[in-house]
Design a protein that fits this description.
The structure is a single chain. A hairpin with a 2-residue loop joins strand 9 and strand 10. Strands 1, 2, 3, 4, 5, 6, 7 and 8 form an 8-stranded mixed beta sheet that branches. By secondary structure, the chain is α+β, with helices and mostly antiparallel strands. Bound molecules: zinc ion. Zinc ion binds next to strand 1, helix 5 and helix 6.
Length: 405
C-alpha cells in the first residue's frame, strides 16, 4: 500500500488507458484531506468501487505491479516520492523542460527520469499533435499555460494513464508512458488529447462530473479527426460502440444522480452528441456544440475556474443562440432518458459496416455529420500536421493562433 498526505487542495481529472476500444477512465475530483492511495482491486468491470477515503480520486490498479508507477503519477505534491516510485535513477540530472508554443499557450514539457524506447523528438511531436487537435477544435489552446509531465513506466504498453490537476493555480497534465511504447502507440493515443480537452471547461460540482468526462470523451476523437489524425469512420464507429454504455439502466436517476462509469463517460458523451445534433438542426448547421464550447471558453470557463454548471450551459447557449444545452440538461439531469440510437444513426446516415461505418450522404441528417466533422480553421491558421507517417516535431508545421479568449 502506498500512502501520502495531501498538503494542499488539488483538483484532479484522471484517465487510465488500456486501449482505444476499451477505454477506462476515471474521475476528476477535489481532494482536500488525507489522500492515501491503495492498490485497488477494481478493474474495468468494477469501476464503481472507489476507495472511500479518496473522493473520486483513485486510479485503476487492476495490474497491481503497476502500483508503484501509478502512485508516482498521483504524487504531484511529492515529486521526489514520485520519481522513486517510478523506479527512476535519482543520479540522473533533472530533465530539461521544453516549452512548446501552440494555440497561444506555453506548454511546458518535462520528460521525467526513466527509460523510454521513444526519442524525445517523438514524444514532443505526440504532445504537439494533441495540442494542435485541441487548438483546432477550440480555436486556440484552452489555457495560456500548462505543464505536461511524462512519466516513464517500466511496465505495460503504450500510454498507460493520464491525469490533469490544478494545483495552486498551476495546471499539470501527467501522463504515464510505458518504456516499451512505440511510435504507433503515440499515433493511436487518445489520452493526451483527452486530458487537454479537460482544460477547456470549468470545474463544476461533483454531481455534474459527467459533463466534464462526457465532453472529453466526445470532443477528443472529433478534434483529432479535424486535424487529420483520426479517420472520421473511427470517430463514428466508436460512438456507435460506446454510446450504448451511456444509456440508463434500471434504477437510473438521471445524469446528476447516477455516478456510474458508463453514465459518467458515455452518458456524458451521449448528452454531447444529442446537443450537437440538435444545435445543428435548430440553426440549420450554422452552429454546433463546438461553437457552444468555444463560447463557454470565451466567457472564461476553463479548468482554472469553478463554475455552477448552469452558468457554463447558459454561456454555451448564448454562443449558439438556441437554448439547447439548458433544455437538454433539464430533461436529462434527474430523469433517465433513453434515445433510440439505431434510429439516430439511421437519420444521421451512419451505417455500421464491419469494424467501421459507411456514411450515407442521402440520409436526412447527413449534413449534420459533415458539419460536426468539418475543420473550422482556414488553411495555415492552425496546427497542420504534415500528411506523411512517421512525422516528427520537425516535420510538423505549426503556426501560432492568437489566443482570442
Ligand atoms: Zn477524463
Amino acid at each position: 500500500m502506498a500512502r501520502n498526505r495531501c498538503v494542499k487542495a488539488i483538483k484532479v481529472r484522471s484517465t487510465r488507458n488500456f486501449s482505444r476500444s476499451g477505454r477506462w477512465k476515471q474521475h476528476r475530483s477535489q481532494v482536500t484531506k488525507d489522500c492515501r492511495f491503495e492498490s485497488l482491486n477494481t478493474g474495468r468491470n468494477d469501476e464503481r468501487h472507489f476507495a472511500p477515503f479518496v473522493k473520486n480520486a483513485t486510479m485503476d490498479f487492476r495490474i497491481l505491479r503497476f502500483a508503484a508507477g501509478m502512485f508516482a503519477a498521483l504524487c504531484l505534491f511529492n515529486p521526489a516520492a514520485a520519481l522513486n516510485a517510478a523506479a527512476a535513477d535519482s543520479s540522473e540530472p533533472p530533465a530539461p523542460i521544453e516549452s512548446l508554443s501552440i494555440g497561444g499557450a506555453a506548454i511546458n514539457v518535462e520528460i521525467e527520469a526513466g527509460d523510454l524506447s521513444l526519442s524525445r523528438t517523438q514524444v514532443l511531436a505526440w504532445i504537439r499533435r494533441s495540442a494542435c487537435a485541441v487548438t483546432e477544435y477550440y480555436g486556440g489552446f484552452p489555457v495560456r499555460k500548462v505543464d505536461v509531465k511524462i512519466v516513464p513506466i517500466d511496465e505495460g504498453k503504450g500510454v498507460l494513464f493520464g491525469r490533469t490537476v490544478l494545483l495552486d493555480q498551476t495546471l499539470v497534465i501527467r501522463v504515464g508512458l510505458s518504456r516499451f511504447a512505440t511510435e504507433s502507440s503515440l499515433r493511436d493515443d487518445w489520452v493526451m488529447t483527452h486530458e487537454m480537452v479537460h482544460l477547456a471547461f470549468p470545474s463544476v460540482p461533483d454531481d455534474h462530473h459527467w459533463i466534464e468526462e462526457g465532453i472529453a470523451t466526445y470532443v477528443e476523437p472529433i478534434a483529432r479527426a479535424q486535424i487529420g489524425d483520426l479517420p472520421p469512420e473511427t470517430v463514428w464507429r466508436e460512438l456507435v460502440d460506446g454510446l450504448p454504455k451511456g444509456l440508463p439502466a434500471a434504477g437510473d436517476g438521471g445524469l446528476d444522480r447516477t455516478h456510474t462509469w458508463g453514465r459518467t463517460y458515455w452518458g456524458g458523451a451521449l448528452f454531447c452528441l444529442m446537443a450537437d445534433v440538435e444545435i445543428h438542426q435548430r440553426t440549420n448547421n450554422r452552429y454546433g456544440l463546438q461553437d457552444a464550447l468555444r463560447g463557454i471558453l470565451g466567457a472564461g470557463g476553463n479548468m482554472e475556474h469553478d463554475w455552477p454548471l448552469t452558468r457554463a450551459l447558459k454561456a454555451g447557449d448564448d454562443a449558439t443562440g438556441v437554448p439547447v444545452l439548458m433544455e437538454l440538461y433539464d430533461r436529462m439531469k434527474a430523469t433517465p432518458i433513453t434515445p433510440d440510437l439505431p434510429a439516430l444513426w439511421h437519420q444521421l446516415g451512419i451505417r455500421p459496416s464491419g469494424n467501421s461505418v459507411v456514411f450515407d450522404q442521402g440520409a436526412p441528417l447527413a449534413s449534420v455529420v459533415r458539419s460536426i466533422m468539418a475543420k473550422r480553421s482556414d488553411p495555415g491558421s492552425a496546427c497542420v500536421p504534415v500528411a506523411h507517417p512517421g512525422s516528427t516535431a520537425n516535420s510538423m508545421s505549426v503556426l501560432e493562433i492568437e489566443d482570442a479568449f
